[in-house]
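Protein details
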Amino acid sequence: MLKLATRTGRAKPSAIMVIADKAKQLKAEGKDVVNFSIGVPNFLPGDHVYQAVRDWMPRDSGGYGSNRGAPALLDAIVAHFKQSGLPGYTRNNVTVGIGAKQVLYNLCEALLDEGDEIVFPAPYWTSYVDIAEILGAKVTILQCPPEQNYKLTPAQLDKALASNPKVFLFNNPSNPTGMVYTKDEIAALADVLVKHPSTWIIADDIYNRLVFDGIGYHNVVQFRPELRERTFIMDSLSKTYGMPGWRVGFVAGPEAGVKALVTLNSNHITCLPEIITEAAIAALNGPQDVPAAKREDFSRRRDVVVGALESIPGVHCPRPQGAFYAFPDIAVAFGRSHNGKLIENDIDFCKALLDEKFVATVPGSAFGEPRSLRISYTCAPEQLQKGLDRIKQFFAELSDAEAPRARVAGA
């Protein structure tokens, strides 16, 4: 009997896309759905990006490009890292991918042999576990509950690295929580990382231009330059520039490691299309007014969302300072019922909220924290307020269930 490769059995569909697809289905049926589920910025890039594409079309060769990336794009990426407070990289230190997810997959494939250990904090982006498991790596998750604002402590990191894991993966600002590590917090983690030289570091920093409240973006290599030779810093056009569908990710890191990624590109994707390359160059080198304006807009939306959630008795939402997500602790709802339906865990909660109020959110268990759920607040302002009002109404309609208080999923 013919069989698929074992690794295909380890691959799982994205929990986020499952919710998003159901929301689309309900909307197609005529339901008034508010979709807080999918992490898209919901704005378009500046006109100069489209103009760059129009200008390029008559000159399009239709040919292959570089496995590493076009020289002009590499220069724009190097300049982008320098503007972000990370100077010293050259073309030999950077390469591109079809979105940050493909860059991350390539990184894990380049760094992890089957059975190698990868460590990262929870809450985490869902694909971290999925990619590691497809590759047969051992996953170690460091729980960072809402009581510590979903942030990793130096003591947790020091203990985890004592076993010399092959890779430490770190996301700042965070998806799904929106939390941002301060300058002092990053410096403290950098001091721990220096003590464990056998571990590669992947810094998933794709939300680095979406930081609020003036706290700034920081990376461990800024505080301990010796980490540069084992740190890969991921970035993307998707969130900052409103270009998720254009699929442009990139990474900076040690020359030998990046060269391995270029070789993988030659086998996986060959290159970015020329036309996409021109759009990426225009986005990075052109006016930055659209990203700056959206950062301020998301900051204001954050205030609205957190204010609404914190007004619900028993709900706590650590205050996000970046990205465009909120990640409230909703455990107060567990063991209660809505219209006779018992809510035992975050999955029950999100299902009931979608079925009863047509608000799509993602269960926190998809991100390794089953007490919570993720709200992406990038929809139109009137939709945002409508969805928040429905969530508050849903909580107000909860009643005490006769059944015993249920166990939290994943506990």
